[in-house]
Amino acid sequence: MHPDTPVYNDGVAGVVKALKQIPAGLGKQSIASIDKRFYVLLFALRFGKVMSYQRLKGSNGLHRLLKFAAALATFGSAGVGLAWGARHGASKAIRVEGGYRLSGTWSFASGGRHSTWMGAHSAVQNPDGTPHMRHGRADDRSFVFRRSEAKIVDDWFVLGLRGTGSDTYTVEDLFIPDAMAPARDVLQERRETGPIYTIGSTLLYASGFCSVTIGLARRLLEAYVELARGKYSRASINSMAANNAIQREIALLDARLSAARAFLHAEVRATYDAAANGTLDVDRRMRLRLATTHGMNEASDVSIAAYRAAGTTAILDSAPFERRFRDAMSASQHLQAMLGHVEMVGRHILGVENKLQNL
User: Fold this and answer.
1) Is residue 119 a contact partner of residue 111, using CB atoms and an 8 Å limit?
2) Distance separating alpha carbons of residues 250 and 246, to the nearest angstrom
3) Strand 151-153 with 167-177, pairing
4) pLDDT per residue over 87-104, tens digit each?
């Protein structure tokens, strides 16, 4: 598929609008965070890929920052989405009258082939090159523009997660009006006060990615179970299902995955409730950080075990292992799965010197 051709399935328009967390004033489709995790998990289980979450990750909560008219114009219809790439330090956004002049290249625009809008994160500077200050700090903003205004580079040739279409894109001296340049996760500019918007983008991303990896792992484990019921190993006269070691492994893998899912859902619910009643603090954020990173790593281990157990069957294109395993391994490399997050939580529990980040 050509990277300049947006793709969208109208059959999932209502789910898309709900997952984008549109506030009441823009369509009354916002859903609770725990329900969003369920939707993402369901898509991963059904299709064995992460399109469902990646399709929406850029737009998640941005409408809480844009002024109403701009948010309505951008996200008002169910079939409109936004994608953006990872922030880096090589872009340039120059403050000018009425807005900004944006230049730069960004990668990992997951869902960009399915979106009408693109976004980009950049530090802001004055025309003389000095940092632009706002709210007592160096100004850092997210800039929103139509996909047609960017040059899309078809470079998403990767091991797994191919369905996300996470291409690279470039803009050069593009004018972005003030109304389309919100500051992400800056309290002073938040316009919506619901629980989703209080939690913030980082932990929402973490919860979504964790749901995807758990869904992929569950599908791989189900494929392992189905295979074991009818396959005979060359090293045994009995079917895999009659092997005590296989029986034990399947039960333990199921326990690990179920426990990770239960931990995630419990902490998402507790975090959502805390955000709703105004008691969301660092302790609660740490718990969700631990649940998401732990869950992603547990899911990765289960995926590996299920793939290994399938033997040569796992490498066949015709079998249900190969593509899901590639997706699972690619998802495991994401920042949200890095064990440095767990170390941060450990320091918090111990009460020692700590740097708080990705909360």
Assistant:
1) no
2) 6
3) antiparallel
4) 888 899 999 999 999 999
